[in-house]
Amino acid sequence: MTINILLGLALIICLVGLFFRFSIWFSQGLQPSPAPVTAGQRFSTAIGAVLAALFSSKAVLIVKSFFVDLLFQKRIFDKSYLRWTAHTLIFFGFIMLFLMHALDSVVTANFFSDYEPTLNPYLFLRNLFGVMVLAGLGIAVFRRITLKPQRLKTNPADWAALIFIAVIIFSGMLLEGSKISSYTTYQNMIEEYGSFDEEETKALEAYWVQENGLVSPRMKKPQPSELVASGMEVNSDSCMECHAPNSSAFASFAVKGVTRPISAIFGDATAVNLFWFLHIAACFSFLAWLPFSKMFHMVSAPVSLLIKGVIGEDNKQAPANQLTHQMIGLSACTHCGSCSLECSSNMFFESFQNDFILPSEKVQYLRDFAAGKVTDEADLKRLQEGLYVCTSCDRCTSVCPSGINLKDIFVAARYSLLEKGIPETSMLSHFSFPLALAQNFAGDHLKALKTVTDLFKKSFKQLSDVSLPMTLSRKQGVDNNSFKGCFSCQRCTNICPVVRSFDNPTESLGLLPHQIMFSLGIGNTELAMGSKMIWSCSTCYLCQEHCPNEVELCDIFYSLKNDAINKIEAGANA
Amino acid sequence: MKYAFFQGCNIPIRIEQYANATEAVLNKFGVELQVIPEFNCCGYPVRNVDEKAYILPSVRNMAIAERAGLDILVICNCCFASLQKARHVLDSDKELKDELNAVLASENLQYKGTVQIKHYLTVLHEDIGTEQIKSKLVNKFKDLKISVIHGCHILRPREITKFDDSFVPAITEELMQTAGATSLDWQGKLECCGAALAGINDELSQILLKDKIRGALSAGAEYITPICSYCHLQFDTAQKNLPQGNETNKLLPVLLYPQLLGLCLGIDEKTLGIVQNSTIESDDIERLKSLLGPPVEEKKRRKKKKVAA
Question: Which of B12, B158, B208 sits opposite A501 (nearest CB)?
Answer without folding.
Answer: B208
